[in-house]
Specification:
Length: about 550
């Protein structure tokens, strides 16, 4: 837009201000008279917020009482502008819309009847302005800036529910012949996964026409789906009906500049089902208004540490709130989403037990009856990398004065594989459950300690080897019940990442190959930069060489700025 200079610029600005007054007056009228739909209000909020946030502080010293009563005030100079303001003031005071406005909006409201759902929302009491964290974008609206997200701090509870439902399956859950009543939480089976869901209520407002058909809302993703008879629905035990919906409704207010984003809606689409950083702008009516970024926010140093990515299980609680009878979600209808199967969209193809981008962590996905002592920050320990997925995801065994994994693990596994001991192992007689401790056969035909990550069928069970960090597929015939005689050692695999750097790209093959060549099964001195799982570490060889420097110089990692 070409902006004139001098006095012409002043006149041009005055005209724009008057036009803004006119638009804001009409906007206020639509909101006051309940004529604005949710699809309209969200972009209104975004644009008005940006305007107010830009100019409110810089203009706070100006008193409007002096401006309106002082000599000359701020009145425009020509008659055209004066009449424009008078019309605006009359329209605003009389609360009458422009001709044809009421009819047009009434028609639009009628045409855009929205499904309404009753369910227990996750409490937003713990969220406050400027709070930062990390989340996974679980669903994006079709055209506006509304979306749903899963906060990392509720991840462990989400994983427990999804994993348990998967393992219970149709052998435990009772299939229903029709949708339950509104407000009842049930399970719907789609794309080989079970999702908690509720159905829509019936509109009671006389002005709102009834919806054709029924709709289903997925509590863990935020999707609204039109119900089809081909959908398989199941009743849920009461225990799994009580937890709140973990998908939180949000509005994107801004994308941090370093994300190089020109289209905020496209940013949401591009980053759906991946991890992003967030900063809370405000919390309004069960909606989080967020600023997002691919990189951490500079004003929160702790957020730049990957320890903020994974929360302890204790940080995820069920905070009940009253059911919301007016959760209108037509803006999040899923008919505009790509048809990628949900198992691929929502489950990590490596760990297979959480949202894409979520790494399995000792404290979150797999229990440890006896844990290692947590090392102090800046302390020095020794680590042996045993399984490496990338710069920010590798599992190590810890070498201490009291723990020599090379010696003790070998001794334990020798006993575990003694033929007389193996003969006493009991076979599984029913499908294993999520996180069940077992002995699992590996490719070398030896038994190792493991936990069940996912059960598909008798020929396909995903297990996590707790002393090494890798996951493999086995059959139920290759599993045995746990024997408490072998739980005297802590699970040896600890999740780590390199401190102060990020991977250059997801699943960087060259970096993985080089890291395995340099680090796998070798003992290194390590300095602990952060001791919340995953541990942030710096590794050094015997000559004191810092491997982080080598990764950056080789272009296999980039520093967090």
């Amino acid at each position: 837009m070409d902006v004139p200079g001098g006095s012409d610029a002043k006149r041009f600005l005055e005209t724009l201000v008057l036009r803004a007054e006119d638009v804001l007056g009409k906007m206020a009228y639509k909101v006051h008279e309940n004529l604005a739909t949710m699809d309209e209000m969200i972009p209104m909020i975004n644009s008005v917020y940006t305007f107010v946030n830009t100019w409110e502080k810089s203009l706070q010293d100006i008193s409007m009482d002096l401006v309106l009563t002082g000599p000359g005030g701020n009145q425009p100079r020509d008659q055209e502008h004066s009449s424009h303001r008078e019309v605006q003031e009359i329209d605003a005071s009389s609360k009458k819309p422009p001709k044809g406005c009421l009819k047009k909006n009434a028609q639009k409201t009628k045409r855009e009847t929205k499904p309404v759902f009753e369910y227990l929302e996750y409490s937003l009491e713990s969220y406050y302005p400027h709070q930062t964290g990390r989340c996974a974008i679980s669903f994006v609206g079709p055209a506006d800036l509304s979306f749903c997200m899963l906060d990392r701090k509720v991840r462990s509870e989400f994983v427990k529910i999804m994993g348990t439902l998967e393992n219970m399956g149709s052998t435990v859950l009772i299939q229903l012949t029709q949708l339950p009543a509104a407000g009842t939480v049930f399970a719907v089976y789609m794309d080989n996964m079970y999702f908690r869901a509720v159905r829509n209520t019936v509109h009671t407002e006389s002005s709102a026409p009834p919806l054709e058909g029924a709709y289903v809302y997925l509590l863990e993703t935020g999707e609204v789906l039109e119900y089809e008879e081909s959908m398989s629905v199941y009743s849920l035990p009461e225990h799994y009906q009580k937890p709140p919906a973990y998908a939180m409704h949000c509005v994107l207010v801004n994308v941090k500049a370093d994300a190089e984003c020109d289209d905020m809606h496209q940013f949401l689409l591009d980053n759906m089902h991946t991890n992003v950083y967030y900063r809370v702008v405000s919390v309004e009516n069960s909606i989080l208004f967020l600023e997002l970024s691919k990189l951490c926010f500079d004003d929160d140093e702790s957020d730049c540490q990957m320890s903020a990515i994974i929360s302890n299980e204790n940080s995820a609680r069920f905070d009940p709130v009253e059911p919301n009878s007016s959760n209108e979600n037509s803006s999040l209808r899923s008919d505009t989403v790509d048809k990628v199967p949900r198992r691929v969209r929502f489950m990590d193809d490596k760990s297979d037990c959480s949202f894409r981008g979520y790494e399995p962590a000792n404290d979150d996905n797999f229990s440890q009856p006896y844990k290692h002592m947590v090392p102090a920050i800046e302390s020095k320990i020794s680590l042996i990398p045993k399984f490496i997925r990338g710069v920010d995801h590798f599992w190590c065994q810890v070498v201490t004065e009291y723990n020599d994994p090379v010696k003790y693990v070998l001794e334990m596994e020798t006993k575990m594989n003694d033929p007389t001991v193996v003969a006493r192992y009991r076979k599984l007689t029913r499908p294993p459950y999520f996180r069940q401790r077992v002995f699992a056969l590996y490719g070398d035909k030896r038994w190792y300690r493991a936990q069940v990550a996912r059960y598909y069928d008798e020929r396909n069970v995903s297990v996590f080897y707790v002393d090494y960090g890798n996951m493999e597929m086995v059959t139920t015939n290759e599993l045995r019940h746990w024997d408490d005689h072998f739980d005297y050692l802590p699970h040896q695999a600890m999740l780590c990442r390199f401190a102060s750097v990020l991977e250059m790209k997801l699943y960087h093959k060259q970096a993985v190959v080089e890291l395995n060549r340099k680090l796998l099964d070798k003992q290194f001195k390590a300095e602990i930069a952060d001791n919340i799982c995953p541990w942030e570490v710096r590794l050094f060889d015997d000559d004191g060489y810092d491997f982080i420097e080598g990764l950056v110089m080789a272009g296999l990692a980039k520093r967090i700025e």
